[in-house]
Design brief:
Layout (H helix, E strand, L loop, with lengths): L1 E6 L13 H6 L3 E5 L16 H14 L3 E7 L2 H11 L4 E7 L19 H5 E4 L4 E4 L1 H8 L5 H10 L3 E2 L18 E7 L7 H11 L3 E5 L5 H4 L1 H12 L1
Parallel strand pairs: 1-2, 1-3, 3-4, 4-8, 8-9
Antiparallel strand pairs: 5-6, 6-7
Keywords: Hydrolase
Pfam family, one: Abhydrolase_6
Protein name: Alpha/beta fold hydrolase
């Protein structure tokens, strides 16, 4: 049995794994979806959230896990799971980047912005609320291009503004910590948020131990959960 610790990306919450958790359980695995502070139903004020808080939520889930841990980060959570693996390298068997940002030591999330990209053009800062948002008219096309209307409606009802502070905080990574953990990258070939070109550039620059590919847009946990679960199970095997 593997315990999959699942970490959502920006704007989302633990809810986004609702199609994945029971499918992993059907295969005999445990799945623990983490709710990052100021996301989902967590009541932390956005301006109080920090990267350290995010990492603490993930390491708490790792510490409570039974069996071998596969730590999965989607999108922005590539930053978070990298820092969590740095803190718990001996407890994580496999680190999975699901179309996620793959940082180097000292990188912050904002360092990975691509000026002029669709997601950069759609990103709106709400300084008064301390969050960033995706323009409503762009959300479905960027994040859920291959999802059903019902899935898009669900996501629209649950996404939240993303706390700005942690996006500017760098992560500290070492070869002895994060670098000692087996790393897998799952490419999504139709992603319009982290484009295939950006995914390839990060993998080429940072290196991983294995790669998988899904013919999916940015949210395969909604659009193709069965294929995603097959891929995660294989990646952790």
């Amino acid at each position: 049995m593997t315990t999959f610790v699942l970490v959502h990306g920006a704007y989302h919450g633990a809810w986004c794994w609702h199609e994945v958790v029971p499918r992993l359980a059907d295969r005999g695995h445990e799945a623990v979806p983490v709710e990052l502070p100021a996301h989902g139903i967590d009541t932390t004020p956005p301006d109080a959230a920090t990267m350290a808080d995010y990492v603490a939520a993930v390491t708490a889930a790792i510490d409570e896990a039974d069996g071998e841990v596969a730590l999965v980060g989607h999108s922005m959570a590539g930053m978070v799971v990298s820092a969590a693996a740095e803190a718990r390298p001996d407890a994580v068997g496999t680190l999975v980047y699901l179309t996620a940002y793959l940082p180097a030591d000292g990188d912050a999330m904002f360092d990975h912005r691509v000026p002029g990209s669709p997601i950069s053009r759609a990103f709106v800062r709400d300084e008064d609320a301390g969050v960033g948002r995706v323009e409503r008219d762009a959300l479905a096309d960027l994040f859920y291009a291959d999802c059903s209307p019902a899935q898009v409606a669900l996501a629209r009802s649950l996404v939240r503004g993303e706390p700005l502070g942690p996006l500017a905080e760098p992560v500290a990574l070492t070869d002895a910590g994060h670098g000692s953990v087996r790393r897998v990258f799952v490419r999504c070939t139709e992603d319009r948020v982290i484009t295939p070109e950006k995914q390839a550039a990060m993998v080429d620059a940072r290196g991983v131990d294995a790669e998988y590919e899904l013919p999916a847009s940015h949210s395969p946990f909604l659009s193709m959960p069965e294929r995603l679960v097959e891929t995660l199970a294989d990646a952790a095997a």
